[in-house]
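hi! just following up on the protien thing from before. the input was this:
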Amino acid sequence: MTAIVISTKNKADLKLFSDLAQRIGVKIKTLTDEELLDLGLLNAMEEGKETEFVPKELIMKKLKRNGNKI
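and the predicted 3d structure came back as:
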């Protein structure tokens, strides 16, 4: 399975993407802020498996990039 995450700032854009996905027969799932945070943490953990150490700054940068305020 392959996925794409699209983050919007307003509900109108989200509805546009959602309607398009449904029209072309693609499954969609709306994620909460908490689920986005979990994805960021998972990504950092997966990178940590490869490098054995992930600096705190990198984790914080990824969390902030996902729109979470820390």
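The chain has two domains: 1-30, 31-70.
Residues 15 and 22 are 10 Å apart (CA to CA).
cheers
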